[in-house]
Design goal:
Adenylate kinase family enzyme; Rossmann fold; 187 residues; 10 helices
Amino acid sequence: MNRIDISEAAARLKTARRIMVLGCSGSGKSTLSRKIAERFGLRHISMDRDVFWLPGWVMRDKAEIRSRVERLAQGEAWVFDGNNTETMPPRMARADLILWLSPPRRVSLWGALKRIPISYGRVRSDMAPGCPERINIEFLRYIWSFNRKTLPKMERIVEEKGGALPVCLLKSHRAVNELLALSARDH
């Protein structure tokens, strides 16, 4: 994995045209993705909104998911947020940079739980129409076990398929804020 520090990632953000944002649910992927997309005039693509879900929380079939990701990844300028390991290779093949949010799981769990008073029962901007916010025990278990179950798969894919693709690990909200502050300089 070609790890870079926050200052190098901030410098690369200024010229990157295709950025992947990875991290556990609740870690702040969508928030960071929206901010970067707005700042640099890039399209924000959300796996949840643009790839996975149809109204009523109906998941698209795997072939359609793969096809949508491949088509969207061909775009010239995007910030693509989402963790699906099966669709990481086509996104990585086109990406200029990976920003990987990796806070402690309690932070991600809190990030998901604090959505309850803010958006529970409403459709967030990074969700598909007809998919109101819902938080259930399975979702909380996914977050709790993410570092044990999903993270190793993601790391293996980046190691095997990432080549020289630069990856910046952001382990806290402070690190995310530092990245955003540094990337705003002279922009």
